[in-house]
Amino acid sequence: MYVSARADYALRAMLAVADVTGSPGRTGGGELVKAASLAESQQIPHSFLQGILLDLRRADLLHSHRGTDGGYALARPADEISVGDVLRAVGGTLTSVRGLPADSAGYHGVATGLRDVWLAVHGAIALVVDRTTLADLLADRVTPH
Length: 145
Fold this sequence. Notes:
Elements: H1 5-21, H2 35-42, H3 46-58, E1 62-65, E2 71-74, H4 83-91, E3 96-97, E4 100-101, H5 114-131, H6 134-139
Antiparallel strand pairs: 1-2, 3-4
Helix pairs in contact: 1-2, 1-3, 1-4, 2-3
């Protein structure tokens, strides 16, 4: 699995929105996060972030509200959004072989067993990222003393 800058930025943005808009496991009381604020707080190029936010909206992970008081909020509670949801929203498949989904890999001859290896790798990654939610990551934070 390769974690692209896009995937890393998307997760950081989603965690920042989850942190501002409500405590882990529920959406907040109407607070919205502006894209410019996300870009600054997470050190993400604003123009790059715009495309990521669009993908997250299309995947129904974020809601956006227009206007001067507008911004972004989670579409579901943080405990219902997994790392896997975010990764798939911005990158498609979790694992790829030569640029194709792992389940598309086909081999013959001595390499036939490789497909099973790639599918097992995909399954192990999916198990971890689909079981880990935004709320889990926010709860695991170490708070300074």
